[in-house]
Design goal:
binds adenosine-5'-triphosphate; AAA_dom; AAA domain-containing protein; mainly alpha; 47 residues; DNA_Partitioning_ATPase; 1 helix; binds magnesium ion; P-loop_NTPase
Length: 47
Amino acid sequence: MEKESLFIAVGNQKGGVGKTTYTVLLSSYLHYQMGLRVLVVDCDAPQ
Ligand SMILES: Nc1ncnc2c1ncn2[C@@H]1O[C@H](COP(=O)(O)OP(=O)(O)OP(=O)(O)O)[C@@H](O)[C@H]1O
Ligand SMILES: [Mg+2]
C-alpha cells in the first residue's frame, strides 16, 4: 500500500514568534525520533 503524505503548516501573521524555531524542532523530531522522511519549506510571503 502506498504511503500518503502528511502536510503540516506552521503559520502566524506576526513575525518573530517562533515559526521557524518550532518548524525545525518538529521536523527534527519527526525525522530523527520517528524515522519519517521530511521536507521543510520556510516561506515569507511579503518578502
Ligand atoms: N539561536 C537563537 N538564540 C536566541 N534567540 C533566538 C535564536 N534564534 C531565534 N531566536 C529568537 O527566537 C524568536 C523566534 O524566532 P523565529 O525565527 O523562530 O521566528 P519566526 O516566527 O520564524 O520569524 P519570521 O516571521 O521572521 O520568520 C525571535 O525572537 C528570534 O530572535
Ligand atoms: Mg521564520
